[in-house]
Amino acid sequence: MEPINIVNSVIAPLDRKNVDTDQIISKEFLKRIERTGFGRFLFYHWRFDEQGNEISDFVLNKPEYKNSQILVAQDNFGCGSSREHAPWAILDYGFRVVIAPSFADIFHNNCFKNGILPIKLTETECDEILAKGLKAPYDVEVNLEAQTVTGNDGKVYSFNIDPYYKQMLLNGWDEISLTFQYEDQIRAFEEKRVVY
Amino acid sequence: MAKNIIEKIWDSHVVYQEAGKPDLLYIDLHLIHEVTSPQAFEGLRLAGRKVRRPDLCFATMDHNVPTKNLPTINDPIAKKQIMTLAENAKEFGIELADMGHPDQGIVHVIGPELGLTQPGKTIVCGDSHTSTHGAFGALAFGIGTSEVEHVLSTQTLWQTKPPTMEIRVNGKLGVGVAAKDIILAIIAKWGIGVGTGHIVEYTGEAIRNLTMEERMTICNMSIEAGAKAGLISPDQTTVDFLRGRRFAPKDENFEKAAKYWLSLASDEGCSYDVVLEIDADEIEPIVTWGTNPSMGTGVSKTVPTSSDFDSESDKSALQKALAYMGLEEGQPISSIEIQHVFIGSCTNSRLSDLRSAASIVEGKKVAPGVKAFVVPGSYSTKAAAEKEGLDKIFLEAGFEWRESGCSACLGMNEDIIPSGERCASTSNRNFEGRQGAGARTHLVSPAMAAAAAIEGHFVDVRKYVTQQV
Predict the structure, then answer these.
(1) Which residues of B are annotated as a binding site for [4Fe-4S] cluster?
(2) Exposure winner among A1, A190, B66, B244, fewest CB in 10 A?
(3) Residue-wise over A73-111: b if at least 16 C-beta within 10 A, else e?
């Protein structure tokens, strides 16, 4: 997993709440057996019409947001299924950070396993960032170490993050290798585990 | 100190605990299907790792499998994914209910049927509807593919203990009102984010009176309320369901297990971080009108109007949903005409669901212009239904009677609802495009779906049930 600390980018303002995983990556793209290559299918039915042409007024199709690495949305981002194809698509498309007032649990968990930083800001702060980003391209710097999002207008938004997951992201750790260090505890647990 | 069942199961599964870290939890049962596992097995191979406890894993294919013209699988990518699971199961020594095996079916239907699902277990699967197994008083939740790989390698997961929530359903449910209506009513009342970050225990008289299959319907849709998991304390109904099942303990071990299971029930006087209450007699059959499961209302009511919402974002969500669904503000629910009826999915494809739908359609015909199909949740369910003649009732009414699988719940196979057309569906999600690009999904109970099939539009199923009584 690629470590993450500082990300400088224009934000992509996706002004919607309850963005579900079916929208992030539609079921027809879940049949691949690889982890990569999902980016071109991200938000497919919002980005493309039935003929496969780009829908020009969808935010990600606007030229000013095309190279964004920071997606900003409203409440309950990533609700729905457990498909890790959703964060894979987000990462493969080029996003490293998603900012929202809240995230669905499984999606939130999946982000940390893939080097994506999910940032929770308040609804007011997200509304403010979305409004700025919709009005004109809004460049920000995300700093995980400092736990801040700093706009090019000087505005600083601070966020909280679980210290364990912060270290995982900063170091790009492989969680399975870490868990292998607890082999003795796992074996001890198995020995006393009651099975009927 | 009085403990709730969530705390009891959690505390008994902690392998390692340290301040500032999540807990390392032991996983008792890992269910595996073809869509969310291939990358996890590939990860093991690349790292030269083994499956630590293949004996605690069980696999089947359900998401992609065709429900007609078997054994042919037309979609080559789906076929590859299905074959990949079979190869992975063989390579890593995991028991598989393969294509054509009598135990095959939707993973959340076969787990309980086989008795793999038991009270007190921690159960995971790369599927959000893993919450279904909570009906037995198990701590069951969906995980992503990286976590699937983690469980395969270590049989554990790092988990931060979530706050707990009690949802108490008081009183008795009306005739013709289903378990599906309870959970849709809960989500409609408090929203799809109400459970976010929490584990829910469902309690109260109305929950106690439910059968195991009905409890599974409730717990299945916990994720639609945002909850990490949803469960119900075990009781004699739970014990009776499990007796004699293939993986259930045998003989005197069963009696010992039963005693342990019953001891897991939440203690008198235990507490929860959040408590919500709803009265069962307020609940009527529900139909969703929008593009998430909270956008639902009673069948006797109308589609909401802008004036029903205070915030601009809710008003705008209403407009987006109605534009997608092709509905008007204030339109009566009973005026919504449907072209498709899907009875199936891990929410509502068990024998009692099929019986309930069959009792409505018996001796009647599907309305002209409506395509209706039934997809039993497992091959074992299908065989049991055929044994009592339910297939004939559906076929004579003009339904299709299909093979088992996830089918049109998410349309990964050929079972797709065409763009712009409407489906009364017993599944769990009505997101945009869920059943096919542009498809319009209305979530309902099996009896409500059956009645809609007969009349061609939504109708209060209590009318039928009263006639029968």
Answers:
(1) 346, 406, 409
(2) B244
(3) bbbbbbbbbbbbbbbbbbbbbebbbbbbbbbbbbbbbbb
